[in-house]
Amino acid sequence: MSYRPQRDSIAGSTHDSRILMESGLRQLFERHHVPVGCHLLGDSGYPCKTWLLTPYLNPQPGAQLKAHKNTRNVVERGIGQVKRRFHVLHGEIRLSPERASSVITVCAILHNRYGLLFKVLNSGDMLIG
């Protein structure tokens, strides 16, 4: 799972879906500049888009409920992974909003770029090369 940082120039009270709809990321998806099969995950507050997966509002028992639980599990594990990797994200960030945004952005970039390297280093395997 990878993370895409959002703009830090928008007030904290702005809904995530508005930020996404005004972002360059939305344009990349809508102009088909993103590989087929790539999707974003959003909550029920996001609009219906072919590239944006949102949960069923009232999942039916069976396949819908299972898909809902599995997706939520993947998201929660991903967030937990980043928070464990970067302890600064595990609790309250006592920085100005601008500085906190920069820290979160850097953590997302490092997670995306070096995720595999972190796994290898944490496993105790030796790197050769």
UniProtKB/TrEMBL annotation:
GO terms for cellular component: nucleus. The keyword Hydrolase applies. Keywords: Hydrolase, Metal-binding, Nuclease, Nucleus. Its cofactor is a divalent metal cation. GO terms for molecular function: hydrolase activity; metal ion binding; nuclease activity. The keyword Cell membrane does not apply. Pfam families: DDE_Tnp_4 (PF13359). Residues 10-112 form the DDE Tnp4 domain. It is found in: Nucleus. Its main location: nucleus. InterPro entries: HARBI1-like, HARBI1_dom. Belongs to the HARBI1 family. This is Nuclease HARBI1. It comes from Merluccius polli. The gene is harbi1_30.
